[in-house]
Design a protein that fits this description.
The complex is a heterodimer of chains A (about 160) and B (about 375).
Chain A lengths: L1 H20 L9 H8 L2 E6 L4 E3 L7 E7 L2 E4 L3 H4 L4 E2 L4 E2 L13 E4 L3 E7 H10 L1 H23 L9
Antiparallel strand pairs in A: 1-8, 2-7, 3-6, 3-8, 4-5, 4-7
Chain B lengths: L8 H20 L1 H26 L4 H59 L7 H4 L5 H27 L1 H22 L6 H40 L4 H11 L5 H17 L4 H25 L9 H41 L2 H20 L1
Helix pairs in contact in B: 1-11, 2-3, 2-5, 2-6, 2-7, 3-6, 3-9, 7-8, 7-10, 7-11, 8-9, 9-10
The chains are: A alpha+beta (about 160), B mainly alpha (about 375).
Chain lengths: ~160, ~375
């Protein structure tokens, strides 16, 4: 019985690593790097209409949508008309990974939603001990931020940086 | 980094009261607290090794097992070595100890006699007059009165100290999973603040305990080198004992100094310059600690004002004796972090509103479902 339980647990771990590999932010990471990263990720479940973070909150980490949908609402003029939505695989709140400043928008779950959270100080400690992982994640994050900034500048209603 | 307001007087009052209560409780369960503290020191020292093995390709749990296995092996070898040394040299150690204690007492008597000779107004102090000059008789008295109790205390402590590798094994292997499970039970509204709290407590403890270990190594090296240059016997061993004793703030340094002076007074009974040299060495290392090593190692890891630290040392000693002296600073640091973060959470109306909203949604869902 004990063996079968362990087998199931290892299997669940491997499945989770496989799921992480499918996320664009972590697509460059090896299985070993994903296992190290997995130790830092926190999975949370939100109900429909539940606030994930609010405008004015101190930003402490990045969120990645695993399932469900998240809507971003802001009182800032530049973001007000955009009201983007995020689905599985998308990430939001990424600026909190770089600085501990106030959130510029509110994130609300539009349906029952599961997200992964990566906390800034844990990410920084990962960068300090394994720069290889840090470079890969930061590279993907930079690409995403650049892409969203371009969209924002072009005034197109798609995925602004929040 | 955003500037957060400093805790107010009320918060500090709560922090001090809670710290005293915890120290009082810890003094009652010291048999559990000391292994816990040693486990934390072991965990923070071994954690980089586990992370290095994970980077080398091992799974986290396997890496934890390998490191704890190595720790267990080293501990067993150390205990076997110590036991074999103890059985072969126990008689010699007793003779050496008696020799050095007698040397220290002789030095004390000689200094006292010189003082009285040069300054006749100095009367003999009660402490010196009560010093036993016949050590064999004193040793016999000690065996009759205290040895049984001392052995019982040792027997009482051995099982709890055996908890250290056992606890270290579980923390290294499953500590992170346990932390994640705890965080998972926190409502979504307080999730980020709870992560912040865990991170702050972890950082405070890690920087304090690892800082203290580094400080012990630096003190051992400096004292060992200084004592070796002065020609004292067992320089590294004495330096290590004095450095470990220094974990007890203020009192530990004095006890360590007395120990070394006893050895120096025996080895160089006719050369007081060497004995005073040992005292000067201790003062120099103390100054080095305060102005160079402490800022480099422990630093402001606990984010507690120095004046408050000193006051809390007195309070800790009054509440829990030597255990209070040892534990007061780390406990104060952790309680300060927890109280301040909890205050931020409890006084944040937005967070509480969000929590009530989530509860309302949950109730609505349950009713609909």
């Amino acid at each position: 019985m004990k063996w079968s339980f362990n087998f199931l647990r290892v299997s669940a771990d491997d499945q989770r690593i496989e799921n992480l590999k499918g996320l664009s932010l972590f697509k460059r990471l090896t299985a070993r790097e994903l296992r190290e990263l997995d130790e830092l990720l926190h999975q949370r479940s939100y109900q429909k209409d539940e606030v994930i973070f609010d405008e004015g909150d101190t930003g402490l980490g990045l969120f990645i949508v695993l399932s469900g949908r998240v809507k971003i609402v802001s009182s800032h003029a530049a973001l007000q008309h955009l009201a983007p939505e995020f689905g599985p695989g998308d990430c939001f709140g990424e600026l909190a990974l770089f600085e501990e400043e106030q959130r510029t928008a509110r994130a609300v779950a539009l349906e029952p939603t599961q997200v992964l959270a990566l906390f800034r100080t844990e990410f920084v400690s990962l960068l300090e001990r394994d720069r290889g992982i840090g470079v890969k994640i930061l590279f993907e994050l930079s690409r995403m931020v650049v892409w969203r900034s371009r969209k924002l500048l072009a005034n197109q209603p798609h995925l602004p940086t929040v | 980094m955003r500037n957060e307001p400093e805790p107010g007087i009320l918060t500090w009052g709560v922090i001090i009261v809670v710290t005293c209560l915890i120290l009082y409780l810890f003094e009652r369960i010291l048999w559990l607290v000391v292994p816990g503290l040693l486990t934390l020191v072991g965990y923070y020292c071994l954690q980089p090794l586990v992370q290095a093995l994970v980077r080398a390709g091992l799974k986290h749990r396997t890496a934890g097992k390998v490191v704890t296995g190595l720790l267990f092996l080293v501990t067993v070898l150390g205990v076997i070595l110590l036991l074999s040394l103890a059985t072969t040299r126990a008689a010699g150690w007793k003779a050496v100890t008696t020799h050095y204690v007698q040397g220290g007492l002789d030095f004390l008597g000689k200094t006292e006699a010189q003082l009285v000779e040069k300054l006749p107004m100095v009367k003999r102090s009660a402490l010196v007059r009560s010093t036993p000059t016949n050590l064999d008789a004193a040793a016999g008295q000690f065996v009759d009165n205290y040895l049984g109790r001392l052995l019982l205390q040792m027997v009482h402590w051995v099982p709890s100290l055996l908890l250290v590798p056992y606890l270290a094994y579980f923390i290294l292997q499953d500590g992170n999973r346990f932390k994640k499970h705890m965080i998972r039970s926190v409502p979504n509204a307080f999730f980020e603040k709870t992560l912040l709290l865990f991170d702050r407590v972890d950082r405070s403890l890690q920087s304090y305990l690892i800082g203290m270990v580094k400080l012990t190594f630096l003190d051992t090296a400096c004292l060992g080198l200084g004592l070796w240059l002065l020609g004292i016997s067992y320089p590294i061993l004495l330096g290590l004992i004095a450095a470990v004793l220094a974990w007890l703030p203020y009192v530990g340094s004095v006890v360590g100094c007395v120990l070394v002076v006893m050895v120096a007074a025996t080895d160089f009974s006719n050369e007081p310059v060497i004995i005073y040299g040992c005292m000067v060495l201790f003062i120099c290392v103390r100054l080095l600690d305060d102005f160079v090593f402490l800022p480099l190692t422990v630093g402001r890891s606990l984010r507690v004002h120095p004046v408050l630290s000193v006051l809390m040392l007195f309070l800790g000693a009054a509440v829990a004796g030597p255990a209070g002296l040892l534990l007061v600073l780390p406990v104060l640091g952790v309680v300060a972090v927890i109280t301040e973060t909890l205050r931020q959470i409890l006084t944040d109306e937005r967070l509480r509103k969000r929590y009530r909203h989530a509860r309302q949604l949950q109730r609505t869902m349950a009713e609909v479902g």
